[in-house]
Amino acid sequence: MRAAALILLLALAGCASTPSNINNVCAVFSQKDGWFGNWYSAAKRAERTYGVPVPVLMATIRVESGYKAHARPPRKKLLGFIPWKRPSSAYGYSQALNGTWAQYKQETGRWTADRNSFSDAVDFVGWYHQRSHRRNGIALNDAYNLYLAYYAGQEGYARGTWKNNSHMKEAAGRAASMANSYATQLAGCY
């Protein structure tokens, strides 16, 4: 009985672990496709549902959280050294904000969705990118502009708040570059 419980505990701990080679989508899928979840299947399901290519979905999550299930923005420091509040409610693989996550659950009917579940997070990213496509006319394979809208929000993107923000544009550039790399890698691993 103890051995079975230990094996189950070790297997579940592996589900929440961060992939070791996050710059290679084949390695990510290889490491995370096991008994308790199949990241590739979840990403393909989101691609079929929302029309957003797997490399774009995965690049968004890579840039947002580095595939860390419990990622949060770092706390601000009070007086330079006392841990204080976080700058936002972003959490999980997708770094979804509380309000946006609640809206996603309401609109999709996925009431039990959890931000630290990869399959829920990749579905959320697909849902959000599909909204960016409908709201702002961004092509579903345009990783750069989809990421800008993800970062700035639908309204912020429409207003162009990102145009004078080098940090947003650099992050979008990383997402686009990663999506291109992932697309090339994916062609050779599945």
UniProtKB/TrEMBL annotation:
Coiled-coil residues: none
Signal peptide: 1-22
Record has Signal as a keyword: yes
UniProt keyword annotation of Transport present: no
SUPFAM superfamilies: Lysozyme-like (SSF53955)
Transglycosylase SLT domain mapped to chain residues: 5-189
Gene3D superfamilies: 1.10.530.10
Keywords assigned by UniProt, alphabetized: Signal
Domain of life: Bacteria
Pfam family, one: SLT_4
This protein's name: Transglycosylase SLT domain-containing protein
Organism: Chelativorans sp. (strain BNC1)
